[in-house]
Automatic annotation (TrEMBL):
<dbReference type="InterPro" id="IPR004027">
    <property type="entry name" value="SEC_C_motif"/>
</dbReference>
<dbReference type="Pfam" id="PF02810">
    <property type="entry name" value="SEC-C"/>
</dbReference>
<protein>
    <submittedName>
        <fullName>SEC-C motif domain protein</fullName>
    </submittedName>
</protein>
Amino acid sequence: MALLQDWQSIAYNKETDKNKLRNFWQNYFMIEKGIYQKLLANPEEVVRGTVKELADKYEIDVLTMTGFLDGINDSLKVKNPIEEMTEDTEVSLDFDTEMLYKNMVDARADWLYNLTEWDAIFTPEKKKELYVEQKKSGTIVKGKKIGRNDPCPCGSGKKYKYCHGKNK
């Protein structure tokens, strides 16, 4: 079985006691925060290695590293093959800083996007701009509703109710 499936069976197990699961996630989030602090301290350095080597580097177990790799994957310049990853799979943590920040905002991970390490990467204005941009990207804007007696938007010249609004 691939590492990702093992990670998911532990992290998202619906039969696990809620308190145990909450403690599991709190522990994971602290580990995750520590790894991001190290990565953001030197954002130009591209960290590479096998899953096992990276787990050893950050002093965590392989499954926790798998969870971290799953979380950061959408922020990487080149995605890792997380679906079929094993301990010996070569992976890279070459992340796009703006994408990583926005993904942290999207995940509502304030403990990550408020890390002090971001201050050396982005100005407060840039962080606010990225934050607002990410928040707006999830906002759905509905167009103006067409009234029954308005001209049909297809350009036929007929009222909407007699044209494309006929069957509504």
